[in-house]
Design a protein that fits this description.
six-stranded mixed sheet; about 45% helix; alpha/beta; three-stranded antiparallel sheet; D-Maltodextrin-Binding Protein, domain 2; 2 domains
Length: about 425
């Protein structure tokens, strides 16, 4: 480990030291037994720990099954923890890894395709199964997924005689009609230079017909579709003034908080918003509809993947456990905690089909778009910077996206 300074350890170094110490302790315990070790991270779902306890107990109850230990932690330092395990070549056998880290850790991950039967593969939504494929190898199976949809205030729409918007133009019209600051803002959008801000822009970009790269591999975020999407995003803020003020200071979680306070007429977010609204804002009437479109229906799909560490000496045992854990009954029990299902049979359950809000998030899965699997961190930072430059009026959308494309193309070239 590289020491960052010659004086007292920085907070980053102190964490890495602590993480390494934790890893050594965990490895000592792990080495003392033959148990399979699976590392997962918390989605703050009710009953999450109990679900994993039930899963391990059910697996242990099967004749001849080895013991499995599932450790549940917060996401705060997950990246450095996973990187530490891969760098030392010792750690959990199975690890949940976000899609944006798959390419980064690809060389340390055992491809899954030899452990997945064709029958099991066909149980997944195609877009979700394919999301784990990088350079022709299946790096992981989707463990948790989300899509995006539009939350709207049913009482405000009914009082104004409006129907939920299906197009960009209808969304703008409804936002203008319902905008009544500071009491209610027509539409909440995040604009802070933080992770997840770019998600909301991507949905406009894809709906306008955009794609990240052309057939030659050149970034096309500055295409006509990209400029049109970012211009619309900026116009909502700076021309029509239908969003919350000082947009560039608001991240997605904070913006969702405005919805829970009854201060937004509309807000696009993921399925976790359903139970959070019911819990945190029982007096705020809402419903969910698919995202408004320009050229094509679209949603964004975000995924976390269960991967098998290449260093694991228990690959066959891990494969057996994965087959067990992905049985419909176990995946349904997990999804009911507040996560979307990755398997079609689980999505057909009444829990998702009989609740109109949950059904929206499930129904849009087949038309979902995903960000490219690549070394993403630098790209994500550059996209959020371009959004900030345009939203703050420092650059036009075209100028901001032209500069962004230069950064992305250089980054991609450096990875080859």
């Amino acid at each position: 480990m590289k020491i960052l300074s010659s004086g007292p350890l920085s907070s980053t170094t102190r964490f890495l030291s602590a993480a390494s110490a934790f890893t050594l302790i965990a490895l000592t315990v792990h080495a003392a037994s033959d148990e399979l070790w699976m590392q997962v991270y918390s989605y703050d779902l009710p009953g999450e720990q109990a679900y994993y306890d039930d899963l391990t107990n059910a697996y242990a109850g099967e004749s001849g099954s080895p013991m499995v230990r599932i450790t549940l932690e917060k996401w705060d330092h997950a990246h450095d923890q996973i990187a530490d395990w891969f760098s030392t070549g010792e750690g959990p056998d199975l690890i949940v890894v976000p899609d944006i880290w798959l390419a980064e850790f690809a060389e340390h991950i055992e491809p899954f395709e030899s452990y997945v039967t064709p029958e099991m593969r066909d149980e997944f939504y195609e877009v979700l199964y394919n999301k784990g494929i990088y350079k022709d190898h299946l790096l992981g199976l989707v463990w948790a997924t989300s899509t995006k949809a539009l939350f709207y205030r049913t009482d405000l729409f009914e009082k104004a005689g409006l129907v939920p918007p299906k197009t960009w133009a209808e969304q703008l019209g409804a936002a203008v009609a319902l905008n009544d600051p500071p009491h209610v803002h027509g539409l909440g959008i995040p604009g802070a230079r933080e992770y997840e801000t770019d998600d909301n822009f991507f949905c406009y970009f894809w709906s306008a017909g955009g794609r990240f790269f052309d057939d030659s591999g050149k970034c096309t975020l500055n295409s006509e579709a990209g400029v049109q999407a970012l211009q619309f995003y900026c116009d909502l803020v700076n021309k029509y003034h239908v969003t919350q003020p000082e947009v560039t200071t608001w991240n997605r979680k904070q913006t969702r908080g405005l919805l829970e306070q009854g201060k937004l007429a509309m807000f696009a977010t993921g399925p976790w918003g359903i139970e959070q609204m019911r819990k945190n804002a029982p007096g705020v009437p809402f419903a969910v509809v698919p995202l408004p479109i320009l050229k094509e229906p679209v949603t964004q799909i975000i995924t976390d993947h269960l991967v098998l560490a290449k260093y694991s000496p228990r690959k066959e045992e891990a494969a057996r456990f994965v087959q067990f854990a992905y049985q419909d009954e176990h995946r349904l029990a997990f999804a009911k905690k507040g996560i979307l299902p990755e398997k079609k049979a689980v999505a057909a359950d009444a829990h998702f089909q009989d609740d109109p809000n949950w059904k929206v998030f499930v129904d849009v899965i087949p038309t979902g778009h995903t960000i490219p699997l690549m070394q993403w961190e630098e790209v994500g930072i550059a996209i959020r910077e371009a959004m900030y430059q345009a939203l703050s009026g420092r650059k036009t959308p075209q100028e901001a996206l032209d500069e962004l494309v230069e950064v992305v193309d250089k980054h991609v070239a450096a990875q080859k």
